[in-house]
């Protein structure tokens, strides 16, 4: 029995220890504070949601078992001062955490108190991005930061192709910092905030109206409204009265507007009429079980809390509900880790103690750091979705609903998340797939914009200041076909002007403008100075023959080029007539020599291959030399009469005739070109030879050619001579560098081509050594430059640009060439053919030599067997002479010597005296033997 009792005791102790390790042991009551603005849209909902969360937690035995949360709620009324006082009051009552505040302005102030007393501050609505964990470590944001909301707004602006926005905001911490973040996000996408329309907190409607009127005078028609619920609704009412919500305008409101509209049980038609077509964002919440439960109980909770005044649940209510649960989970982990609630005096408060403030009651929460650590590690599924903080202290999976206000209701046109950008698919579905933020996957449903249209607004107009566009045009003296200004009437005309007018007419909106001539009228103006007039705001644009070069693109924006241009070299040329020796010009001297040598080589090779078997290549030495020469050069005309009988000879002849065919055809083509096309000569061949010389170079007054030659090509300024008109061009080139003129002129191709239509003794030499074009110049980031570029492309595609060109610029013949010297045929041009032919000759000779040596060996063997004594008596003769003698005689003789045929018959077959003597000698030898 005693043993049984001992065992039961040990078991009881083990059970007690096990339970002690798994059950949280905490105080009976934990005090928390709640700060929000009770009379605001967000505050009303948050107050009910927080009370519901505390009740659910206290009734849930699975969390904080035995510990009850007690919340003290205070109304900050958007006041930072009142928020500080209320936060200090919480600290007097041993508060371990504060849910709130709702306002970013209040959060900035109270976060200093939280840092000092180490009390976590858990805000469900303070979305200011500057409330970071680095500066305010005890500030915990339980809702998504405006950094993500402004990223979604920037993606919207980029998606619809707008380049700039006007920001309308309340000038407090919440508004300023949110808009600053928007500017950063737009800059990442190469967009910008054109104008910031700041509204003073608590401003009257008259002040708001003045701000809106000034904003309406600006160029942008895309407005981003970042405000509070009361001020935001007032802005929309004023904008509606100012017709700023009509067609052509775009309004994007941040999540404050969706919170207002979601909270109203029945949307007011008068309220909605002021914001038709507006886009707004809503903090996205998932379809979780806690959300469904809270929504189903909401009407009952509101009646109990507010006494019957109905308002609906918005997204901020879900995040407020989750904030309390987040704190409960953290407290549960805090107590499980051995944490306890205790407070210590703040030693730094002793220096300011005294008076009626009762600062001695304020103390530091000893477990604040541990509780903060547990809060940052919480991970559960709440009403809004997964509740978990990343390494930067932000809730994971930031996402927003994009809502379009249409008629009497709201329509969701898509979603934004930092996971995949804009999409018509819910974020929860996208989280199950690999991230894909490519442009092709950015999609939204159709939007009904202000003015009841589905056509995406342009997003900008000309600034409504009543002024026309001041367009500077160069007051040219020369080449007035491009731009000409009448100093008497002020009329401006020319090719460039007509192109601009035609492009302006293609724009879908009217543009008022006036041309202002720039220049003295006595010489062409400096185009660099003309462009600088845009930088100094003297002109709103520059229209004319303005080249698009690097230095200019750094200060202004250009349209699409409407004329291709580039620097070329213009110089005087003279005709090169043909003479009695023109037929030698197609080939170089080396080519003539190599060709002649090959004729002799081929003739000799064929003679060697045919000499022993072909009577056409036999006879006296003089005749054979003549035959070789005749045969060699007659192949040039395919007129050779000698027949080739050997296989090797025919092989060589076939290859040689192919080579002769190619050489003959090339010679004929080159000679035809020389005799029929006028050849021009000039000492200048291109830009390299121009730079290498020391002769003067001309350029057009005002052109960028001077700067290019000096700074890019290193030409000495002393060599440059300015010329102002086509007549000066002609005179300077006619004089030449030796008589005070120039050796060449460097100018843009359009001017040179126009000059050449009336002057035929000049030509372009070398290649165009810069590539650019002419465009219209506008200030940086000008929308008109973009639209005119599209219009210029349209003119080009429809052919109107060419028709304007033909109207102003003559299309007569011009002289232009890149190489003034005739192309002569060189040896390397035919090196491959000569190599093939040479290889064929060597191969044929090698084969022929092998066959000849073999035949000679058989002949010697036959001689030794049939007449050894005779052969021994003739041993004095050299072996080489014997071989050469053998090679010189006709092959049929030695074929007979090796057979049983009569030697007399073999002798009769020879035709030369050498063959007859050889046969007689051989016969006498045989008779003596």
Automatic annotation (TrEMBL):
UniProt KW Nucleus keyword: no
Extent of the signal sequence: 1-20
Biased composition (Low complexity): 904-929
This protein's GO CC annotations: membrane
Primary localization: membrane
Region annotation Disordered: where it falls in the sequence: 894-929
Residues annotated as transmembrane: 591-609, 651-675, 827-853
Membrane topology listed for this record: Multi-pass membrane protein
InterPro entries documented for this protein: ANF_lig-bd_rcpt, GABAb_receptor_plant_PBP1, Glu/Gly-bd, Ionotropic_Glu_rcpt, Iontro_rcpt_C, Iontropic_Glu_rcpt_pln, Peripla_BP_I
Highest taxon above the source species: Eukaryota
Domain Ionotropic glutamate receptor C-terminal stretches: 470-811
Compartments (UniProt record): Membrane
Biological process terms in GO annotation: cellular response to oxygen-containing compound; monoatomic ion transmembrane transport; response to wounding; signal transduction
Record SUPFAM superfamilies: Periplasmic binding protein-like I, Periplasmic binding protein-like II
Keywords from the UniProt entry: Glycoprotein, Ion channel, Ion transport, Ligand-gated ion channel, Membrane, Receptor, Signal, Transmembrane, Transmembrane helix, Transport
Matches recorded under PANTHER family: IONOTROPIC GLUTAMATE RECEPTOR
Function of the molecule: Glutamate-gated receptor that probably acts as non-selective cation channel.
Family that this chain belongs to: Belongs to the glutamate-gated ion channel (TC 1.A.10.1) family.
Identification of the protein by name: Glutamate receptor
